[in-house]
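Supplementary Note 3. Input sequence used for the single-chain structure prediction.
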Amino acid sequence: MIKLILADDHKIVRDGLKALLEKQPDIKVIAEAADGITTVKLAKKLLPDVIIMDIGMKDLNGIDATKKIMEETKGIKVIALSMHSDKRFVIEMLKAGASGYLLKDSAFEELTIAINTVMSGQPYLSPKITDVVLKEYIHSMPKSEPSAFSTLTSREREVLQLIAEGKSTKEIASLLNISIKTVETHRQQIMEKLNIRSVAQLTKYAIREGLTSLE
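The predicted structure, written as discrete structure tokens, is reproduced below.
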């Protein structure tokens, strides 16, 4: 039996996937999560075989959540299920340790194939992502295209995402278990690295880089 966690910030997506997956005799959905922080906690506690991971989730995006899961657990396979086919999202998700990447407009049958493929130890990438693009991802991003994942540290990205989502300094400190002064230091470092001077600009940058969404 393949134990699986569904991580997506849209309940309707989780409900739909769960209903379809539970019709498969060899798959059991053991938990659901609506944000990245909860996903990481559930992964460490329940040790599923596979996590279906959305990228655009609140509190902690799917890329950094995948990175934490890979660092803190062993043997868990992550399959990204995203609406994004942009090369930056694909390469960063693969670099984070994901075993598969599907687009949300894929047929359900493709998801079951992906689950069985990664469980056999092989990666699975949606055919809709072309070979040419994948080769570019698997190698390195061009230096002319710096991203939030190459410019900022993991902690800075967490702080930036929470700032962009409207969290106060006190709320961020509580969520990340760090001091208010540390949050303020991170914010200053982020602004200096990105040469950005306002929260509005930080928010636009976070959305453009896929750390959060307008929703």
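Strands lie at 2-7, 27-33, 50-53, 77-82, 100-103, 124-125. The chain has a mean pLDDT of 90.
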